[in-house]
Known about the structure:
Chain B: Residues 197-332 form the Thiamine pyrophosphate enzyme central domain. Chain B: Belongs to the TPP enzyme family. The complex is a heterodimer. By secondary structure, chain A is of the alpha+beta class. Helix content of chain A is 29%, strand content 43%. Chain A starts with a strand and ends in a 6-residue tail after the last strand. Chain B is α/β, with parallel strands linked by helices. Chain B has 22 helices and 19 strands. Chain B has a 6-stranded parallel sheet, sandwiched between helices. A 6-stranded parallel sheet of chain B has the order 15-14-16-17-19-18, with helices on both faces. In chain B, strand 4, helix 4 and strand 5 (99-105) form a beta-alpha-beta unit. Chains A and B meet through helix 1, helix 2 and strand 4 of A and loops of B.
Amino acid sequence: MRHTLAVLVENKFGVLSRVAGLFARRGYNIDSLAVGVTEDPNVSRMTLVVRGDDHVVEQVSKQLNKLIDVIRVTDLGADESVERELALIKVKSDKDTRAEIIQIVDIFRARIVDVASKSIIIEVTGDEEKIAAIEKLLKPFGIKELVRTGRIALTRGSKSS
Amino acid sequence: MSENTRKMTGARAIIECLYEENVEVIFGYPGGALLQIYDEIYKSDLRHILVRHEQAAAHAAEGYARATGKVGVCLATSGPGATNLVTGIANAYMDSIPMVALTGQVPRSMIGNDAFQEANITGITMPITKHNYLVQDAKDLPRIIKEAFHIASTGRPGPVLIDLPKDITTEEIEFSYPDKVDLKGYKPTYKGNLQQVKRAASAIEKAHRPLIYAGGGILGSNASEELLQFAEHIQTPVTTTLTGIGGFPTQHPLYIGMPGMHGTKYANYAIQECDLLIAVGARFDDRVTGKLASFASNAKILHIDIDPAEISKNIKVDIPIVGDAKNILSSLNKYVNPVEHETRKEWLDRIEGWKKSYPLHYVGEQDGLKPQYIIEQVYEACKDAIIVTEVGQHQMWAAQYYKFSQPRSFITSGGLGTMGYGYPAAIGAKVGKPDRVVFNIAGDGSFQMNSQEIATAVQNDIPVIVAIMNNGYLGMVRQWQELFFEKRYSHTCIRDSVDFVKLAQAYGAVGIRVEKTSEVKPALEKAMDSGKPVIIDFIVECEENVSPMVPAGAPINEILDLERKE
């Protein structure tokens, strides 16, 4: 079972290392971790994807909460939140395959952000499944490089996390 | 911030902050990165105890904290000085002891360059501190030091480290000490949720066979009196963990000793048969629970702890109350109706029966000197001593055979099990409580891990008495090898490695050797009268075991008697 945790932290020296270190030393599995500042420059938001049963996730949240720099931890249930990942995919492409790739990009509402004679870079946002799907379709053309941001998420509606 | 600001160097500001925090003593060791700070210490009224190894500074600060309830402070230079503190910091973290560790660091411009005596100590200590700081601007010093003392001593106490780059100590700042701390992410809960307190009260009233299992949190929150009232109020037996010893008077009729691996049989039986386990400031350590699946399996679990992360960490809790033990026990004393002794008679009689059938005992009629006997005699010689221990067999015997009537009288390394802890911790305890007699009950193995601190005790005139249970072995490991490795004593024999009497004398301390039972009392009397640091080398029976014992991973009621019979 995978859970998405929204973690608000003080934007202080070493905070990322504290959070990542906690996972390492307590033996928790961390699938993805995305960090950025919020509307308040003193506060950063981390989105963590954690694998484990409810007991593990509860422990992760409690242990995170113990860190002095952690302000709030929220477990985001999938139906109450919007989750996104961004991926950049560099695919082999020449004049014979370009049209076909563009078609796939259109269907997925992705974007081409760079074109060269032998490759294309595609930008795609969406949930994990969508990115996995486009990756699968592009694979036969030859993926030269791929980078993903890790998951970011916010609760739906006026409730904040 | 107060309006009276004064200009001063960072080093001076550190001293001023320590004054503001009412720090009386620091345990430390100088070095290049600390020259400025040590110059200010020279000019200050602070008491500084110079140790011989930084590890001892951390342990001494911790022993001081445990004996006094105040925050212990230690100071070490950058690089190796700082890394030498690590074991002591980890020890304080595992046992939730309030401590502030100050470390020197290379100048800011050199950080990250692998400069001489540089170590990334904030990185190293992240997993073993409650919080830590690298001071990046001298102006932040007062705020950071204020926060550090606040974090160390509130909520679940613990060690906080402040790393001080050398150039910060020379920079001039406008000094003013903040009145308050403002930490968005740190708001410990002290008062228990009233609903939960009422649920607990009702569970206690319904229980037929309740049992209180109290840990170090009782001492951390100074809740001994409330615990005593609570136990008497609900006529419920009490078992205390190793670090909880002293939190409840051990001669009280409701006291049933320590639980777990070397706990009493009756404490372990009581845990397995109780129908409500009331855990207070205890964390269900594996040395207590044995096999988790069968621990207190007939009981509802009520858990009172200030750290929400301890709730259901190891054992699923039925009724959690997050908050300070002192606070919650006093509200329980209000909300629970008093229980008559008669109501509990059947349960208490049952425990009494176990106490009579399976008392702690050892065979004492042999020629050899028995460590258990020595501990009993230490008690006879001074019933009100602070007992500090190293780690191993002697530690368990001290926990089993000394009788404690007041809190903060038993100081031992519980969670981390740090050999070499006892002597420096005893020095710290004696500095904090100069009027109490302080014994370090030691093993010959553990004592050798920090015996250089005899120099500290002698130079600073700290009359701690060390009672070495010298069996020529790393006794606890030997015991396991005897039981589980067919007596293949692989590298646990350390016999004749040192003459402790001569060692004591070499440092200017008093050394006494005791080989016969008849010599025990006179030696203890001589040690207590000497007013000097004393090392007593008790040559004890070499293959004596700690009994009873639950093998690791077994259910705690599967408990073995291991005493030797001739």
